[in-house]
């Protein structure tokens, strides 16, 4: 049985740009970072490349929600291994405007879902991973 979602692993081409997007623009905090050897990545994911990872989470919560992976030699192709990542945000209109100013593309402006309980919008990070930004309406 699944108890909860542990984290989303995202391969980024440029770790600094990934951190800029997820940490600086979206406000996640760095929990820790480390390196996996070629042997470790071969054992875990059958890719024999050195890997740097950064675990990011929500402030005051030491449980990582996103792990950024940057391989020594790029392995990223044009397709993604997931459909999207959903993140809860405080103010969808504000983050929409802030990210637009940074050149982030959106599929839509924040709109209400069919139950009028959330405002949602979709954007892509610098590596074309799709993000669903969700504001819960009280």
UniProtKB/TrEMBL annotation:
MF GO annotations: metal ion binding; methylmalonyl-CoA epimerase activity
Family annotation (Pfam families): Glyoxalase_4
InterPro entries xrefs: Glyas_Bleomycin-R_OHBP_Dase (IPR029068), MMCE/EMCE_epimerase (IPR051785), VOC_core (IPR037523)
All copies of domain VOC, residue ranges: 4-136
Gene3D superfamilies reported in the protein's UniProt record: 2,3-Dihydroxybiphenyl 1,2-Dioxygenase, domain 1
Biological process terms in GO annotation: L-methylmalonyl-CoA metabolic process
Keywords: Metal-binding
Name of this chain's protein: Putative glyoxalase
Species for this entry: viral metagenome
Record lineage: unclassified sequences, metagenomes, organismal metagenomes
């Amino acid at each position: 049985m699944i108890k909860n979602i542990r984290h989303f692993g995202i391969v980024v081409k440029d770790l600094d740009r990934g951190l800029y997007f997820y940490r600086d623009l979206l406000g996640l905090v760095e929990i820790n970072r480390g390196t996996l050897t070629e042997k470790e990545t071969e054992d875990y994911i059958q890719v024999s490349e050195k890997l740097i990872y950064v675990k990011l989470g929500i402030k005051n919560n030491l449980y990582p929600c996103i792990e950024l992976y940057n391989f020594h030699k790029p392995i990223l192709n044009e397709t993604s291994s997931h459909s999207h990542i959903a993140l809860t945000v405080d103010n969808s209109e504000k983050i929409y405007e802030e990210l637009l100013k940074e050149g982030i593309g959106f599929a839509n402006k924040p709109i209400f879902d069919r139950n009028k309980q959330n405002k949602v919008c979709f954007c892509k990070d610098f590596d074309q991973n799709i993000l669903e930004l969700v504001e819960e309406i009280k």
